[in-house]
Amino acid sequence: MYTQALNTAETDDRGLEDAGRAAQFQARIDAEERIEPNDWMPAAYRKTLTRQISQHAHSEIVGMLPEGNWITRAPSLRRKAALLAKVQDECGHGLYLYAAAETLGTSREELVDAMLAGKAKYSSIFNYPTLTWADIGTIGWLVDGAAIMNQIPLCRCSYGPYARAMIRVCKEESFHQRQGYEIMLTLCRGSEEQKAMAQDALNRWWWPVLMMFGPPDSTSQHSDTSTKWKIKRFSNDELRQKFVDATVPQAQYLGLTIPDPGMTQDADGHWRYSEIDWTEFKQVLAGNGPCNRDRIAARRKAHAEGAWVREAAASYAAKRAHRQTAQAAE
Amino acid sequence: MATPNTPLWEVFIRSRNGLAHKHVGSLHASDATMALQAARDIYTRRGEGLSIWVVPSTAITASDPTEKGMMFEPAESKIYRHPTFYEVPEEVGHM
């Protein structure tokens, strides 16, 4: 079980790591064993996973904002119900992930506070605005499509609670991508204006979506140890290539043009994309994307406005517990 | 100001009639009633369950993974606890 108390109590005597334990740990990883919360693990493994899982959780929660923007303006009741269900799912995914991160010994409250203070990162993609209804289709099709590409190998991640959370997430996420593609298909079969709207959304989202997979392998800082620990099974560039190869035929079916005139198909059938503008990626990560400030402001506002609910629930629970103790004493 | 911690609960769900409750994950809630409602919203959005148990995480006592050997090895050598240990002639038929 994933009780925080067990983890925090043991943290102190883990300061000094001996090489023997580290070697045993690596042997377990190499044998494809899953690591569970109360097993011994190197401090750096714990730290890397806490950072990765909490960032993943923050991304799910912040990711509700660009889509939530369109719930009241969905074009039909069917679309509205689907979008509402999708945004609810993202919230659920954030909660599974916070629960998985907590098993490593940092409380959800601390993780959330770090995000609200601007100290923790979330996916760069959610700092772009959703300007039209076609953006909702594009997010489902491409952003969720890219997320699935990244999350499927995570179902086999060496850390048990993270892998199990990913299995649940992947099961639920496939509806997200399909509903997005259906929106795009409807727009592309509609009027000229609707098709233009779909093309415009693809033009704006394509490059930011490719950036979701992270920096190229030649410059990625965390990849080597993450691969050794089997947190990561494929490199950023490998996943990006898989995504592009899967997406190009889907775009062709829609009759849309990928906004990369230099794209060519090589002899092995892989679609080779042009150079990605990494300065834009760095700018968005550094807090200078189109919506960074809005997103954090919206999260802070929601957190502050929910404070009275948390306080009321806590004081009600305390009052009830007090009364039960008093009754038991009588 | 740091956000105060809300208690942690473990969630168990009976997915179908006749099956046992199975651990599905955990959540935070200030009391049992809210924990049940949150479990409904987080873990049964697609008809995954017929019944939910929520248990305060602090109420669970877990075995120590470092003592796994001492706990479970004694059973490994006792192959005579399995039916395949015993020989029954084929003529006797299924037993």
Automatic annotation (TrEMBL), chain A:
GO cellular component, as recorded: cytosol
InterPro entries: Aromatic_CoA_ox/epox, Ferritin-like, Ferritin-like_SF, PaaA, PaaA_PaaC
Species this chain originates from: Bradyrhizobium shewense
Alphabetical GO biological process terms: phenylacetate catabolic process
Top-rank lineage group of the source organism: Bacteria
Pfam families reported in the protein's UniProt record: PaaA_PaaC (PF05138)
SUPFAM superfamilies linked: Ferritin-like
Gene Ontology terms, MF aspect: phenylacetyl-CoA 1,2-epoxidase activity
Protein name (database record): Ring-1,2-phenylacetyl-CoA epoxidase subunit PaaA
Automatic annotation (TrEMBL), chain B:
Source organism, top-level taxon: Bacteria
InterPro entries: PaaB, PaaB_sf
Pfam families (UniProt xref): PaaB
The protein's name: Ring-1,2-phenylacetyl-CoA epoxidase subunit PaaB
Origin species: Bradyrhizobium shewense
